Amino acid sequence: TEELLNVFSVSIITALIGGRLLHLISFYKEIDSWHEAFALHEGGFSLLGAVIALLCVIPWYLKKNKVPVLPFMDLM
Fold it and tell me: Which in 1, 22, 35, 40 has the greatest CB count within 10 A?
């Protein structure tokens, strides 16, 4: 159960970073300053960025911690 909580924690952080990063890449012309880029309270999130980040990071994290990837994904 501890490993499951760790995976969920990594998933949440990864999705937030990936979603925000793709939003910033998509709308880079509209960003005037670094402060505006990191102002999370002003909104801006890409669901596709979150999914792409999760598809890249979670299998890597599972392999790093020696958790079988396919059975874990099937469980989810």
Answer: 22
